[in-house]
């Protein structure tokens, strides 16, 4: 069993900067855990502590039932895949994958079996004799993964492995990584700042901010029920619309559909608005003036300022954002810029 448990983990860098401020996460055996958050939130620091590349200032890191705080990286039974691949340029693909195993003194026959198996899974078999410079970015990334796979570790650690790839390849490799992990069933921790990657890969999603965990859970649960306004605006693109409203007003507007009317902040996902002159029973209706339109093919984003001329919505103290609302509608039909429309929320949180 290879659970990874972080118990009140802290990291203060020399110089006194507190990068991780007490993090608790439980990754079950075979689960895919994604650490997501904005630049500087501490996700790489946390991953590097699990790998043993950074010391732990406080708390415990437990891999497979053993506290590893003092265990050398090579003895942790983990394999890490880096953003820059870290391949040896002068070695063939075969030797890049074999290198770590040879260092451990594994017999050549066993190495050959493992490298060939990994090459087959990753569709690298025809390229084993090539050097990294003779490969595409996606192929290099697969070699980097092959090097992790041949180790047959208890845990895979991924540090933004796809960020050097172009958009199309990123999506293809994202699907490949997920399929691979399902097939090998190896406990994985994956760092990214890309919320879409996080949503699609994770069994368990950890949203971090400022060295702390904002929310942990199933990605769809987090999308549906963000615990904080930070999570609400970080998970989902374009972000959830956040408005401050008086709690009594929210209750009367939302009726039975009402989600949590936390601290008077109402969150409505762009896809949960419809353009209509009617206010659905128990719904919220807003007058908007269309300011911008983004057509992306199957759907269109309408950016509107709250209110119509001469009919502005009374500003509520502490209202956020100052009035812009994003509405997602299917298809490419959209009202023209400047049009006064009404939107109704079919769901709110
Ligand atoms: P990114 O997505 O930009 O890589 P991240 O979430 O992975 O960001 P970390 O690299 O873990 O963030 O850094 C967390 C914080 O710790 C940052 O404020 C960073 O400046 C700081 N930090 C990282 N490494 C060191 C170090 N060696 N010494 C001092 N501070 C550091």
Walk me through this protein's architecture.
This protein is an alpha+beta fold and 349 residues long. The chain has two domains: 4-224, P-loop containing nucleotide triphosphate hydrolases (Rossmann fold, 3-Layer(aba) Sandwich), CATH 3.40.50; 238-345, Nucleic acid-binding proteins (OB fold (Dihydrolipoamide Acetyltransferase, E2P), Beta Barrel). The chain has nine helices and 17 strands. The strands form four sheets. A six-stranded mixed β-sheet has the order 6-7-8-3-9-10, with helices on both faces. Strand 14 (284-295) and strand 15 form a beta hairpin. Helix 2 packs across helix 3, helix 2 (93-103) runs parallel beside helix 4 (137-150) and helix 3 crosses helix 4 (137-150). The chain is globular. Mean pLDDT is 87; it is low at 250-261 and 314-322. Adenosine-5'-triphosphate is lined by residues 13, 15, 17, 19, 37, 39-45, 193.
Compact overview of the structure:
This protein has 349 residues and is α+β, with helices and mostly antiparallel strands. It is built from 9 helices and 17 strands. Adenosine-5'-triphosphate binds at residues 13, 15, 17, 19, 37, 39-45, 193.
């Amino acid at each position: 069993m290879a659970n990874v448990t972080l118990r009140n983990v802290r990291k203060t860098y020399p110089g006194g900067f507190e990068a991780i401020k007490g993090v608790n996460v439980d990754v079950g055996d075979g689960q895919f855990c994604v650490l997501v958050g904005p630049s500087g939130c501490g996700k790489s620091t946390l991953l590097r502590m699990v790998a043993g590349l950074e010391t732990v200032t406080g708390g415990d890191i437990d891999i497979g039932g053993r506290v590893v705080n003092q265990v050398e990286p090579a003895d942790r039974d983990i394999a890490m895949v880096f953003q820059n691949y870290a391949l040896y340029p002068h070695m063939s693909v075969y030797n890049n994958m074999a290198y770590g195993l040879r260092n451990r003194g594994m017999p050549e026959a066993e190495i050959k079996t493992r490298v060939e198996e990994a090459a087959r899974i990753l569709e690298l078999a025809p390229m084993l004799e090539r050097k990294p410079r003779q490969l595409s970015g996606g192929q290099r990334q697969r070699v980097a993964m092959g090097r992790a796979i041949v180790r047959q570790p208890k845990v895979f650690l991924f540090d933004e492995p796809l960020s050097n790839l172009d958009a199309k390849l990123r999506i293809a490799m994202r699907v490949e990584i997920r399929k691979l992990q399902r097939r090998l069933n190896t406990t994985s921790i994956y760092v990214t700042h890309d919320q879409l990657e996080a949503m699609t890969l994770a069994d368990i999603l950890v949203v971090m901010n400022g060295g702390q965990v904002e929310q942990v859970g199933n990605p769809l649960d987090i999308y549906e029920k963000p615990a904080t306004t930070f999570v609400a605006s970080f998970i989902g693109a374009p972000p959830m619309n956040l408005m401050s409203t008086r709690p009594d007003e929210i209750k009367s507007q939302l009726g039975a559909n009402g989600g949590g009317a936390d601290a008077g902040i109402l969150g409505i996902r762009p896809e949960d608005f419809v353009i209509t002159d009617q206010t659905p029973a128990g719904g919220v209706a807003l007058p908007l003036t269309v300011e911008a339109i983004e057509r992306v093919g199957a759907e269109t984003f309408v950016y509107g300022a709250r209110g119509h001329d001469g009919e502005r919505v009374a500003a509520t103290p502490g209202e956020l954002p100052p009035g812009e609302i994003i509405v997602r509608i299917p298809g490419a039909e959209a009202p023209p810029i400047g049009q006064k429309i009404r939107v109704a929320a079919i769901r709110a949180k």
